[in-house]
Write a structure and sequence with these properties.
By secondary structure, this protein is an alpha/beta fold. The protein contains six helices and seven strands. Strands 3-2-1-4-5-7-6 form a seven-stranded mixed sheet, with helices on both faces. Helix 5 links the parallel strand 4 and strand 5. It is globular and about 40 Å long. The termini are far apart. The structure holds S-adenosylmethionine.
């Protein structure tokens, strides 16, 4: 079921709007391997991607250090994420990982058909999160950045523009603030 049609999805607090959630769901539904998400917060995008995994059989690894980002007044709580994982029936399709993305992502014993980057919104952090995922992407994998288009997050937008110029990726689409690329190698 699309997140926008799910009776409970919109009650999860977070920043992923319905249109973006449905887009993430569709991409997750189109892949059969593994997916990584950096920036779980309370699981709003995690559940959107997870609902896609329920249909495709893909598996999502979602990573958060649960310290929050500078723009948050209150950090997220892992208990809420785990509650959402159960509530939406995602136990077998989602692995909730705690820790810094730079430490945790390299330890995941999988390569990824899709990466969704929504961690710290600084230029350096977006670059670092991209690099740590890039090393583990499969050929023609999907790479999606939240807040990378017309959301006022200029550091995210600048980092994504630089990345797109310097790494072999083609832009596939823009969905809300999400910019979606495909790896060209
Ligand atoms: C914008 S929120 C994610 C929102 C979420 N994707 C949603 O749809 O609601 C960013 C999250 O990234 C986490 N975060 C920031 N930097 C991180 C890092 N280096 N490693 C792991 N998590 C990080 C924060 O704790 C925060 O929960």
């Amino acid at each position: 079921m699309r997140p926008s049609q799910h009776p409970d999805w919109n009650s999860i607090f977070g920043w992923c709007v319905k249109f973006e959630a449905d887009y993430l769901y569709e991409i997750a539904r189109s892949v059969t391997g593994n997916i990584v998400e950096i920036g779980t917060y309370q699981g709003r995008s995690m559940v959107a991607i997870g609902l896609g995994c329920l249909e495709s059989g893909a598996h999502l690894y979602t990573v958060d250090h649960y310290l929050g980002s500078p723009e948050h007044r209150t950090p997220p709580a892992k208990e809420v994420v785990v509650q959402n994982q159960f509530k939406f029936g995602l136990m077998r399709h989602v692995t909730v990982l705690e820790g810094d993305s730079q430490v945790v992502v390299p330890t995941i014993e999988a390569s990824f058909d899709m990466a969704y980057i929504d961690g710290t919104h600084s230029y350096r952090a977006v670059f670092d999160d991209f690099l740590v995922c890039w090393k583990k992407l499969t050929s023609h994998a999907n790479i999606l950045f939240h807040d990378a288009y017309k959301g006022g997050w200029t550091e995210v937008e600048d980092a994504v523009k630089q990345i797109a110029m310097r790494w072999p990726m083609e832009q596939v689409n823009v969905a809300g603030s999400i910019v979606h690329f495909r790896k060209m190698t």
